[in-house]
Design brief:
Elements (H helix, E strand, L loop, with lengths): L10 H17 L1 H9 L21 H6 L14 E5 L7 E5 L1 H17 L7 E4 L8 H13 L2 E4 L5 H11 L3 E4 L1 H14 L10 E4 L13 H9 L3 E8 L4 E4 L7 E2 L5 E6 L11 E8 L10 E10 L11 E2 L4 E2 L4 E3 L2 E3 L1 H9 L4 E10 L5 E9 L3 H16 L4 E4 L2 H8 L10 E3 L4
Helix pairs in contact: 1-2, 4-5, 6-7, 7-8, 9-10
């Protein structure tokens, strides 16, 4: 079951939940005010079932009342991370020394799950600047494991291959679509990438699995060209916790000492076992900005059957979509990932991004911006056929040069490339 009662769950789970709620009740101005408004009394929290009495925390709450979530004195803040907010304004996530230690432990456990040990060399292709928590987390976790980190940052495949050839890392942490760009660059430059030191890639930011854990198109394209082992991971700044696959590749293991996960339906009720629901989390051990029943907006399935690797924790399946990104287009419900899957099938699509807008009838419109070196009419015909087969509808298709596309997708102020641009009227 996705949401066990206290009789079904280890007593440690209830204890950690109670401690998290008690801490928020004593230190978080936001939760103090929110819970007082519903008459919540901490002494009435007797079982995990009582958790559902507490209101859900949304991304809009974080956006609009960011400062009210701060639960320590500002003098104790060691680091300021941030995430882009749903309303466009960055949401600050300060961390205390204890929070940094927790972040280190999180990634220590996650990297260890993939086989990283002391002495392992890791090529880190995510940024550590721009208040980005992910790069910091990977570095701290690797440091705690005694592994070596090559901080190459995003972009520039030439620099990555230079580092690989000279420093010989066994692992790489990268966005899957960028791995394909590295493969293309290696082919163009005559680099023998199959004989390189890189044997394992921890994929971030984009899914590489289908719901049944088979490789999706992106995962397939990498493995068809490069004999490496791929691992999927799911994380966010708000959670401060990663869900990372083990060798079996059957979902991201839940770090139960650091986070509690609920899967809820649209009415806020727990979904039946094996059914998809929105991922809702309560963080354990966070000092500066604890979150209780935080709605991530991500849709997934929880798996409770024992994992062959021996870990007993539940596993979170691939993210099926994000509620906020759901598109109603020509009577069909679409998530951006379904469009990405179609585009990823064609290796002559050099790059792309999607844009959804609102028309004069207040309906969603969907446009795919594509860069290709192949005949555009031929490409358009293939795309129309693939979209009709996969989605039953066809978005507008606009061809752009890499320079035109790059002005939207790769803005210097953004920490990640923009794959989905939501211009709908709110």
């Amino acid at each position: 079951m996705s949401n066990p009662t206290i009789d079904q769950a280890p007593s440690a789970t209830y204890t950690k939940l109670f401690q998290a709620i008690e801490y928020a009740a004593l230190h978080s101005p936001y939760y103090q005010k929110k819970w007082a408004s519903i008459g919540f009394d901490l002494s009435s929290f007797k079982s995990i079932e009582d958790l559902k009495r507490l209101p859900l925390t949304t991304k809009d709450d974080l956006q609009k009342e960011n400062d009210a979530f701060l639960s320590i004195d500002a003098s104790r803040i060691i680091d300021y991370s941030s995430t882009s907010g749903t309303l466009g304004k960055p949401v600050s996530f300060p961390l205390s020394q204890k929070d940094l230690e927790r972040l280190s432990l999180n990634e220590y456990l996650s990297l260890k799950t993939t086989g990283v040990t002391a002495g392992t060399k890791i090529l880190l292709t995510t940024t550590m600047d721009k208040q980005f928590m992910a790069g910091l987390a990977y570095f701290l976790g690797a440091q705690k494991l005694g592994a070596s980190v090559i901080r190459s940052g995003p972009g520039l495949p030439a620099m990555k291959w230079e580092s690989i050839q000279s420093l010989k890392p066994e692992y790489m942490i990268a966005v899957p679509s960028f791995v394909l760009k590295m493969i293309d660059y290696a082919k163009e430059q005559g680099i023998d990438y199959q004989s390189s030191s890189v044997k394992k890639i921890l994929c971030i930011g984009e899914p590489i699995r289908n719901p049944d854990f088979t490789n999706n198109v992106l995962g397939q394209r990498i493995l068809e060209q490069w004999n490496v082992k791929l691992y999927s991971t799911y994380a966010s700044t708000e959670k401060g916790t990663a869900f990372t696959e083990c060798e079996e590749g059957k979902g991201g293991h839940v770090l139960e000492d650091l986070i509690y996960v609920e899967l809820l339906d649209d009415q806020g009720n727990p979904v039946p076992a094996g059914m998809e629901g929105e991922v809702v989390v309560t963080t354990f051990g966070v000092e500066a900005m604890p979150l209780v029943r935080y709605k991530t907006g991500d849709i997934a399935i929880m798996h409770h059957e024992p994992c062959v690797c021996g870990q007993k924790s539940p596993r979170l399946g691939p993210i099926l979509g994000r509620k906020q990104q759901m598109i109603k287009f020509k009577g069909t419900t679409i998530f951006p990932q379904a469009v990405f899957e179609v585009l990823n099938k064609l290796d002559f699509i050099v790059d792309y991004y999607l844009k959804v807008s609102t028309d004069e009838m207040m309906l969603d419109t969907l446009t795919v911006f594509v860069c290709t070196h192949k005949d555009k009419e031929v490409v358009k015909k293939q795309l129309v056929e693939l979209f009709k087969a996969a989605l039953r509808v066809t978005p507008d298709i606009v061809f752009q040069t890499m320079e035109e596309l790059g002005k939207v997708k790769y803005k210097s102020e953004n920490r990640k490339p923009i794959l989905f641009l939501d211009n709908r009227t709110k």
